């Protein structure tokens, strides 16, 4: 089987870039908020911050990875997926997820129903490229205030089924929230809205990430070093295979030339 050096080289570069980020980052965890355009990423970040730090609009505002620090966490707002026909924003978002972030909040709004094929494809790419993905990601379901309790439970069950059967995640933590309900609770000083928003579960997850970031990075660093070593071995094998193929071609060509030359000599003689 011929190995594709270009594909291996790309994976190698992703791993090397991520390792570089781990080694030279400070101790603040880096969390990327990742998902389709207009699924509530910016509103979610505003709820976490407690004020409007990120614009929410019906047109694309985030066209590149935007980082901002809050409460000892470096937050990365990635471009909305599937909004740029040229795919440049998706590439930037994936870079933010693969290389920059220690942890990912994958955002999906429940008003859209179940996960679509595009989301599943993207999530599968994350699972393939991210070491120990189940420990680095959670799926945040937004806008739960737009559904009844029964409707929400149906959607959550369907999404869990999709994750289990149609993706390479197999399992992932799911946190349903309403960022708008939480922000309304803050603005109107109504704790019941904040309580029913589900945000407290997300805040608990953030605290766990902050407490475990050093341990998590050390584990990922070890895995990346092994992954890079494996990639280098594969590339060396591929190069040797290519050299052997070229060598065999040269031997075959030399044999063909010798054969034709002998035929010519015989004919002339």
UniProtKB/TrEMBL annotation:
<dbReference type="InterPro" id="IPR027417">
    <property type="entry name" value="P-loop_NTPase"/>
</dbReference>
<dbReference type="InterPro" id="IPR006073">
    <property type="entry name" value="GTP-bd"/>
</dbReference>
<dbReference type="GO" id="GO:0005525">
    <property type="term" value="F:GTP binding"/>
</dbReference>
<dbReference type="GO" id="GO:0005737">
    <property type="term" value="C:cytoplasm"/>
</dbReference>
<dbReference type="Pfam" id="PF01926">
    <property type="entry name" value="MMR_HSR1"/>
</dbReference>
<dbReference type="GO" id="GO:0030488">
    <property type="term" value="P:tRNA methylation"/>
</dbReference>
<protein>
    <submittedName>
        <fullName>Uncharacterized protein</fullName>
    </submittedName>
</protein>
<dbReference type="GO" id="GO:0002098">
    <property type="term" value="P:tRNA wobble uridine modification"/>
</dbReference>
